[in-house]
Amino acid sequence: MKSTATTFVLALALVACEGEPPKTPSGPAAHEHEDLTTATEPTDPEHAGPHGDHAAHADDAGHAGVDPDAALPEAGLPIPVVEVAAIGTVKGVVVTQPAGVAANAVVYLEDAPIEPTAKMSVTIDNHQMLFSPFVAVIPAGGKIVFHNSDPFPHNVFSSDHERFDMGAIPQGQGRVRAFKAPGSYALLCNLHPGMLGYVLVTPSSYSAKADGKGHYTLRNVPNGTYKITAWAPRVTPSTQSVTVKGNDVSVDFDLHR
Ligand SMILES: [Cu+2]
To answer: What global pTM score does this model have?
Structure first.
C-alpha cells in the first residue's frame, strides 16, 4: 500500500517532468529537484510550469494521508532552507617578551564551539628526555596519551588546575588522561627535573599553533564575534575581540610576563 502510493506520486512527477519541453539542456532538471524541497519559494516565471506542478503533487501526498510514516514534512508548511554558514580566516602575529616563546604560542577562540570533527586526542611522547610536542593542544573534554619511547621510565605530573600525576610510565607504554576544564598545564617529570612540557586545553576547537616566527592562522571560522586569546609558555595570556564576516581578519598579540 505504502509503496504503491509512493510509486503513484513518483509516476505523476515523472509524467510532469516528461511533459515539459526541454527549454534548456540539463540545467533545469537539477533546478527542479531543488525546488521540490523549497516549494514555497516565489515562482520564477521561466520555471513557473514545473514549479507549480511539483508543489501541487507534494500537497496531494501530504493531504491524502496515505503514508503516515513518511519522512516528508507536513505539506503546506515552508521548509526551512539551511544556508551554509559563511566563514573567514583570522591570522596575525604573536610577539612575546621574551621573544623566544612566541614560537610556541597558541591562539584560540574562547566562545566558539567544539566541532564534531575536532581532533580530541593527542599523544605526547617522552623521547630523548623531552616532551614531544613541547606544547599539546586539545579542546576541553579531549584526551592526552602520555607515551614513553625512551628505554627507561618517565613520570608525568602537573600542579596546575586539575593537578594530576600519571605515575611512572615504563618504556613503550602509555597512560591516558582526559581534560575537562580549559586551561594550561605545565608538565614535569619527577624522575628528570629538567623535563618540561605543556598541555593547553582550549574551550573551543578553533586553535592554531604559531610558526617559528609567531605567525598563526585560524581557518574556516564561522561568521561571528568572538573572544580570541593568545597563550604562550611563561607569559601572561591576552584576549581580544574579533569579528569575522566571511573575510580575512588580522589580530596581533603582544605578550609579556
Ligand atoms: Cu622523565
So the answer is: 0.67
